[in-house]
From TrEMBL:
This is UPF0301 protein ELAC_0845. NCBIfam families: PRK00228.2-3 (NF001271). Coiled coil: none annotated. InterPro entries: AlgH-like. Belongs to the UPF0301 (AlgH) family. GO terms for cellular component: cytosol. Pfam families: DUF179.
């Protein structure tokens, strides 16, 4: 039996790129919707790892004791801006809960404490974000550019980023599972 597709864009929803998106940061991307309202939407791409050297005033590598710190390319908008996506509930006044046990926000002091704690929370340092004007994301969804699926802490922080797109489609079942088997390079087909 095929799962009924999830069809409501809201905070805490995954946007899963369809094969119609053929290039750029959104190719096979999974975007976590962080805000969606009549004025527009914003989200963070969570399955694109980013290899960059960070200044020591942000992360002192010698103090990096938390094995759960990862860096992500959050999207094409303001790529020099860093946002924290994490599993800590220690600073509710500084954060926005995106889905159960997943928070967005925090300051530099919070980040420093998290990276120095060997049993600290899972945390993504996300550079850039994805943004849509009023009605734009709805149009993209209706035009078939995105599949929707409820976001979970497990998928965000515990599914390897390079496998997240395929894993979510397989879980959706039916035609989505079939789409998950399309090779990245169609010339290999």
């Amino acid at each position: 039996m095929e799962n009924v597709p999830y069809a409501q864009i809201q905070k805490g929803t995954f946007l899963i790129a369809t094969p119609d998106i053929e290039g750029g940061i959104f190719f096979r991307s999974v975007v976590l919707v962080c805000e969606h309202n009549p004025n527009g939407s914003f989200g963070i791409v969570i399955n694109k790892s980013l290899a960059i050297d960070l200044p020591e005033d942000i992360i002192n590598v010698e103090e990096l004791s938390n094995p759960n710190v990862q860096i992500r390319a959050g999207g094409p908008v303001q790529t020099n801006q860093m946002m924290l996506l994490h599993t800590s509930s220690k600073i509710p006044q500084q954060t926005l809960e995106i889905c159960e046990n997943v928070q967005l926000g925090g300051d530099l002091q919070f980040l420093q404490e998290c990276i120095a704690d060997p049993s600290g929370p899972s945390i993504f340092l996300c550079f850039g974000y994805s943004g849509w004007g009023a009605g734009q994301l709805e149009r993209e969804f209706l035009d078939g550019h995105w599949f929707l699926y409820p976001a979970t802490k497990k998928h965000i922080f515990h599914t390897p980023p390079e496998k997240l797109w395929q894993t979510l489609l397989r879980e959706m079942g039916g035609k989505y599972a079939t789409i998950s088997m399309i090779p990245e390079d169609l010339s290999l087909n």
